[in-house]
């Protein structure tokens, strides 16, 4: 079965709907008449599709059930290296893994989408975790040169102090209806206090 020839998979790659890739390949794998994964199966795309969706466990299971010969291909090895970096939250290593391999089409588009999604996720983590961060550290974590990092973060309202090379993180305001963990803690405290009164 030539999975790349499947209409739904071709459409997902061509339209940039990379979130559909893993599900389509999972379904095709289940429908396959063979108990073994075919040699022409897009193994790396299958792993990367799960990574794109944030399903690192599923990506690991795809890798674990691959035939030994498939595990040795350069693209699958590159996907495995990327998976290991994402799994261990080695974000600096993630950027090296993304750029260290010449990904074949149509996987290269999926990798580009994964890079954008990963950068957005890391940016969100930085916003929640830091009040101030050195520009060089933010650049390394975001996988960008410092100048591009400055442009990106300043568009989001962060401030840069050139004297100290430190970024002041702009915390987005809490919108009405959003709950914080302090709200959850307060509710839990009130609930426990209510139970103790009975």
TrEMBL record:
<dbReference type="Pfam" id="PF10075">
    <property type="entry name" value="CSN8_PSD8_EIF3K"/>
</dbReference>
<dbReference type="GO" id="GO:0008180">
    <property type="term" value="C:COP9 signalosome"/>
</dbReference>
<dbReference type="GO" id="GO:0000338">
    <property type="term" value="P:protein deneddylation"/>
</dbReference>
<dbReference type="GO" id="GO:0005737">
    <property type="term" value="C:cytoplasm"/>
</dbReference>
<keyword id="KW-0963">Cytoplasm</keyword>
<protein>
    <recommendedName>
        <fullName>CSN8/PSMD8/EIF3K domain-containing protein</fullName>
    </recommendedName>
</protein>
<dbReference type="InterPro" id="IPR033464">
    <property type="entry name" value="CSN8_PSD8_EIF3K"/>
</dbReference>
<dbReference type="InterPro" id="IPR033205">
    <property type="entry name" value="COP9_CSN8"/>
</dbReference>
<keyword id="KW-0736">Signalosome</keyword>
<keyword id="KW-0539">Nucleus</keyword>
<dbReference type="GO" id="GO:0010387">
    <property type="term" value="P:COP9 signalosome assembly"/>
</dbReference>
<feature type="domain" description="CSN8/PSMD8/EIF3K">
    <location>
        <begin position="44"/>
        <end position="175"/>
    </location>
</feature>
């Amino acid at each position: 079965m030539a999975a790349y020839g499947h209409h739904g998979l071709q459409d997902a790659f061509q339209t940039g709907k990379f979130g559909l890739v893993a599900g389509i390949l999972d379904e095709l794998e289940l429908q396959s008449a063979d108990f073994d994964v075919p040699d022409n199966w897009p193994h790396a795309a299958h792993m990367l599709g799960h990574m794109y969706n944030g399903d690192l466990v599923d990506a690991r299971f795809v890798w674990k059930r691959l035939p030994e010969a498939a595990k040795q291909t350069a693209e699958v090895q590159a996907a495995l290296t990327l998976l290991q970096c994402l799994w261990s939250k080695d974000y600096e290593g993630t950027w090296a893994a993304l750029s260290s391999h010449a990904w074949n089409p149509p996987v290269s588009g999926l990798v580009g989408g994964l890079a954008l999604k990963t950068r957005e996720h890391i940016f969100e983590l930085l916003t929640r975790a830091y009040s101030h961060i050195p520009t060089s550290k933010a650049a390394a974590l975001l996988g960008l040169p410092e100048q591009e990092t400055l442009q990106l973060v300043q568009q989001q309202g962060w401030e840069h102090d050139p004297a100290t090379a430190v970024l002041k993180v702009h915390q987005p305001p809490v919108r009405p209806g959003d709950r914080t963990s302090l709200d959850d803690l307060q509710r839990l405290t009130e609930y426990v206090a209510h139970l103790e009164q009975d």
